[in-house]
Specification:
Shape: rod-shaped
Largest sheet: none
Oligomer: single chain
Radius of gyration: 45 Å
Number of helices: 6
Strand content: under 5%
Length: 140
């Protein structure tokens, strides 16, 4: 770090009423750079605005920046767009597309569809049972 940067940093940190550097850091005036140092002290008696900043820059709110970069949910608009269309894809085609986009892991696979068993109906009616009962057991 150069001496000039150190001096400027100390000028920024010193109290407003006090303008001299501490005696340990003061240079003698008889050095070769005495004229330049005197000019600098005269030219910059108080800290100015930082010239390294962009001219006309506006300080942005962190909350506004967060809202700009936050992910937006487009589900509702996409659903309205999709439902508005008249073309409906074939169910087999949609199943193929879903199968292609599915991963190979077991957690990505949909649960296996179990075919529902229909309750087995009997061929015989109540009358047939009564008739059999009468014939077999001999009851009226």
């Amino acid at each position: 770090m150069s001496a000039s940067l150190l001096r400027r940093g100390l000028e920024l940190l010193e109290a407003p009423g006090r303008r001299k550097a501490p005696p340990g850091l003061q240079q003698g005036r008889d050095g070769p750079r005495a004229a330049g140092a005197a000019r600098r002290r005269k030219a910059a008696p108080e800290p100015r605005r930082n010239k390294a900043t962009v001219k006309g820059r506006v300080v942005k709110s962190a909350i506004e920046e967060y809202h700009k970069k936050k992910a937006v949910n487009h589900l509702r608009a996409n659903l309205q767009y999709m439902l508005k269309g008249r073309f409906v894809a074939n169910k087999t085609i949609t199943e193929q597309v879903l199968a292609q986009n599915r991963g190979r892991k077991s957690k990505d696979q949909p649960p296996k569809k179990v075919a529902k068993k229909k309750p087995e109906g009997t061929v015989f009616t109540e009358e047939d049972f009564r008739k059999f009962e009468r014939e077999y057991f001999g009851r009226p």
